[in-house]
Amino acid sequence: MTKTVIPDLGVMPRVDGILASVGSVAGLRIVDIGCGEGQVARALAEQGAEVVGYDPFINPTDWVETVSGRFRLAKAAADAIPEPDGSADLVVFVFSLHHVPRDRLAGALGEARRLLKPGGRLCIAEPIAEGANQYVMALYHDETEVRRAAAEAMAGFARPYFRSETEVRYRERRAFANFDEFAALAIAGTRFNSYTAEDVLSSAVRGRFDEMFAIHGPDFDLPVRLNIFS
């Protein structure tokens, strides 16, 4: 396998980082595994793709037409995607691979390979467990170990099956004027995670936020590693 590393695209929104890395998605059929509420699926559809997002914790939708593409959401586990072999040009895991249970990671990546057409690409975007945001979040939701497990699975069950890999790094903009803004975003994620609003609002978390704010100001940008397998 050949590997290319692009060390830093700078600061940009999550989907912009994906598009800057994979290029135009117009006309592509995309499967978004672990799609959450469908923000990425919608954004890719708005760029001209046909996207089906799968997640075990969502309510399914009918097709939603955008100006230039369309998307729908469906309920399924990452290792049991109800799509035919070779039906996708691009399969994406966006901040979702580390949510797959460790004993099902191989199956999830196997599903991704099964879905791809010849010449298709697999895109995995994962937050990196470092920086101010991680330091604060670790008190109520430390994902260091699950992110490590996802990276190990990618090495063991994705890399051996592709001809080339491009690794890109960028930083997703996370700016907070105060602790209340930080807490509101964190609490919005409780549906897909195991922590509670009370965990986020603890005095210890507030203290760490204030500590980082004194050093970095509102800049809590989240480092992201994005791997594209072809």
CATH H level, superfamily name:
Vaccinia Virus protein VP39
Give the ordered list of helices and strands: EEHEHEEEEHEHHEHHHE
Share of residues in helices? 25-40%
Query: Please, how many domains?
Result: 1
Apparent shape: globular
> Per CATH, which architecture?
3-Layer(aba) Sandwich
Structural class: alpha/beta
For the termini, the CA-CA separation is 10 Å
CATH class categorisation: Alpha Beta
Q: On the 0-100 scale, what is the average pLDDT?
A: 95
Beta content? 25-35%
Radius of gyration in whole Å, from Cα?
18 Å
Q: What name does the CATH topology carry?
A: Rossmann fold
Largest sheet: 10 strands, mixed
What is the count of β-strands? 10
Spans with pLDDT under 50 lasting ≥5 residues? Answer: none
Commentary on this structure:
The protein has 230 residues and is α/β, with parallel strands linked by helices. The chain has a single domain, classed as Vaccinia Virus protein VP39 (Rossmann fold). It has eight helices and ten strands. Strands 1, 2, 3, 4, 5, 6, 7, 8, 9 and 10 form a ten-stranded mixed sheet that branches. The longest helix has 14 residues. The protein is globular, with a radius of gyration of 18 Å. The chain starts with a strand and ends with a strand.
